[in-house]
Amino acid sequence: MSKRALKKYLEALDQNALKEQLIDLYDRIPEVKTFYDFVFNPKEEALIEAAKIKISNEYFPTKRKRARKRRSVAQKFIKQYKLLGVDPKLLGDLMLFNIEIAQTFSASLPYMPETFYKSMLNSFKEALQYLSYHQLKEDFGSRLEGIIEQSESQNWTNTDLFEEVANDFVD
Description:
This is DUF6155 family protein. This protein is mainly α. It folds into 2 domains: 1-41, no CATH class; 42-168. The protein has helices spanning 3-12, 15-28, 30-40, 44-59, 71-84, 88-107, 114-133, 141-153, 159-168. Helix 6 (88-107) runs antiparallel to helix 7 (114-133), helix 6 (88-107) packs parallel to helix 8 and helix 8 packs antiparallel against helix 9 (159-168).
């Protein structure tokens, strides 16, 4: 259905029918419920803290023995919070936290698979793009430098690419 057809359909409905449809959507579709919960009660800091806890449990689990190290968990939160319109500064913090917690984890192990380093580089690129777009790089400059320094001190195979990416986003 096109947006134009949807508008025409909605204009034909009376107010009570429209309310019923919204309530039905709220009950049936979790994304709609999440959206309205966020709109009427944002609590952005609480959302970010809950996401940080879940991300850190990927690397330092409290209920199981082995770390899962899934980047997808953090990416799911980041994507969802972008759609909801969470404060860019808080979302930038979450993006960098994801990389920092992964670096903390990798520091304790002698070997990480190549896919891990590639994944963290992708996260770093995405964070830099987001911070540049929202003009927040200066606010997070020391953390960005710390990420690059950690990749160097841990002898990551793609350290030079971290530096290249950072240089590409220099104002």
